Amino acid sequence: MKEVKVLGSGCNKCIKTAELIKNIAADNEVPVNIVKESNVEIIMQYGVLSTPAVVIDEVLVHSGSIPDKKKIQSWF
């Protein structure tokens, strides 16, 4: 199971990012555990300057915008 963290304040873009990842993972039959992280100190530990950001298995893979569907699919 992949551990996916969506980093951000909980804004609409962060919520949409988490929903997109969940839906695309389900479409590809990839089990994921999605965690929404809003603690600024933890977000800064990943070196993120703009959110939403996505961390998969402790590797920062995206930040600053809602990732497009093709990019999310490439993660799975």
Shape: globular
Integer tally of domains = 1
First-to-last CA distance: 11 Å
The largest sheet has its strands arranged as 2-1-3-4
As residue ranges, the low-confidence spans are: none
Indicate the mean pLDDT.
96
CATH topology title: Glutaredoxin
Please state roughly what percent of the residues sit in beta strands, choosing from under 5%, 5-15%, 15-25%, 25-35%, 35-45% or over 45%. 25-35%
* Number of alpha- plus pi-helical segments: 3
Give the biggest beta sheet.
4 strands, mixed
Q: Classify the secondary structure makeup into a structural class.
A: alpha+beta
Describe, in plain words, how this protein is organized in 3D.
This protein is α+β, with helices and mostly antiparallel strands. It has a single domain (2-75), classed as Glutaredoxin, CATH 3.40.30. The chain is built from 3 helices and 4 strands. Strand 3 and strand 4 form a beta hairpin. The mean pLDDT is 96.
Key traits:
single chain; globular; Glutaredoxin; 3 helices; four-stranded mixed beta sheet; alpha+beta; 76 residues
Describe how the helices and strands are arranged.
Layout: E1 2-7, H1 12-27, E2 32-37, H2 40-45, E3 53-56, E4 59-63, H3 69-75
Parallel strand pairs: 1-2
Antiparallel strand pairs: 1-3, 3-4
Short description:
This protein is 38% helix and 28% strand. The chain has helices at 12-27, 40-45, 69-75, and strands spanning 2-7, 32-37, 53-56, 59-63.
